[in-house]
Amino acid sequence: MLPATTPQPPYYAVIFTSVRTDGDNDYGEMAQQMLELAAKQPGFLGFESARQDIGISVSYWASHEAIKAWRENILHRQAQSRATDWYKAFRVRVCRVEREYGF
Amino acid sequence: MLPATTPQPPYYAVIFTSVRTDGDNDYGEMAQQMLELAAKQPGFLGFESARQDIGISVSYWASHEAIKAWRENILHRQAQSRATDWYKAFRVRVCRVEREYGF
Fold first, then answer.
1. Half-sphere exposure of A65 (CA within 13 A, CB side)
2. Which of A32, A92, B25, B82 is the most exposed place for a label (fewest CB within 10 A)?
3. What does B10-43 look like in DSSP terms, one character per residue?
């Protein structure tokens, strides 16, 4: 995995920070399914993820409308309804990316 | 580590995504120093970090001015000048956090 290749700002980021519950509880399978499904959504720009003590996943999107459509996707909503099976705590932060640099 | 406790949006996030070089090259010590120094800066709101294949660190800030002051901090600039010792690739994304939710 490399840092996501994203277009010139502005675009949008959803930072999902979480602490997992103990045990898998189908988490691995569901996470993989959700990533594959997200990547097919209109306006999806990229994804980055890492987990140690906490997990941080960042998805990048072309617009607020694209984020809203993904949040309301029926399969994604079914996954969201199981959040407490997988997470002791989580925060979702919806952001407008204003500037990007690096190498 | 838990998800950062941040105020009501709007506030700002810097998403730092990176791939490490091989070997430590003083990275561990410098990363710890930089986190301690960042946490003392005016406008610092919190920090989250995880590394697997890639590293994702997110720092949260009260304003663009706070981010700029931290970017230009002299000790931080000395660390920035060694970026290629530590990173094969990195991206910095400066974001405005518009909405936050979770449990």
1. 2
2. A32
3. PEEEEEEEEEEPSS-TTHHHHHHHHHHHHHTSTT
Residue type, A72: E
Length of chain B measured in residues: 103
Query: What length does chain A have?
Result: 103
Model confidence pLDDT, tens digit, residues B51-86: 999 999 999 999 999 999 999 999 999 999 999 999
From CA B55, how far away is CA A42, in angstroms rounded? 27
User: Token digits for A22?
Assistant: 């103990």
* pLDDT, tens digit (0-9, with 9 covering 90-100), for B6-45: 999 999 999 999 999 999 999 999 999 999 999 999 999 9
Among candidates A48, A56, A92 on the partner chain, residue whose Cβ is nearest the Cβ of B48? A56
Checking if the pLDDT of A58 tops 90, the result is yes
Minimum-distance CB partner of A19 among B2, B4, B95: B2
Pick the residue of B5, B8, B15 with the most A CBs within 10 A to test the interface with A by mutation: B15
